[in-house]
Amino acid sequence: MKESKVILKNKEGLHARPAAMFVRAANQYESDITIIRDGEEVNGKSIIGIMSLGIFSGQEIILRAEGKDEDKAIEGMVEFVENQLN
């Protein structure tokens, strides 16, 4: 299992369209992807789960990857949140 903390920088937070983009990115990996905010965990491959967290710009989240490609998955998802989720 690999984890990394990231600050969400996009102005919309993780709602509707950005959440759908996150799910598409997460589905590229075999590993389970989890998003944790304030101790609440959701499946990072579930748009409903992600939207239920109500993540806004500037909030810290923890990304967790667990599975065969967890190293690649955590690296890719952190890069996605920091640089592509705009």
From TrEMBL:
InterPro entries registered for this protein in UniProt: HPr (IPR050399), HPr-like (IPR000032), HPr-like_sf (IPR035895), PTS_HPr_His_P_site (IPR001020), PTS_HPr_Ser_P_site (IPR002114)
Pfam families in UniProt: PTS-HPr
Domain HPr: 1-86
Compartment list: Cytoplasm
Coiled coil segments of this chain: none
Predominant localisation class: cytoplasm
Keywords: Cytoplasm, Phosphotransferase system
NCBIfam families in alphabetical order: PTS_HPr_family (TIGR01003)
Protein task: General (non sugar-specific) component of the phosphoenolpyruvate-dependent sugar phosphotransferase system (sugar PTS). This major carbohydrate active-transport system catalyzes the phosphorylation of incoming sugar substrates concomitantly with their translocation across the cell membrane. The phosphoryl group from phosphoenolpyruvate (PEP) is transferred to the phosphoryl carrier protein HPr by enzyme I. Phospho-HPr then transfers it to the PTS EIIA domain.
UniProt name for this protein: Phosphocarrier protein HPr
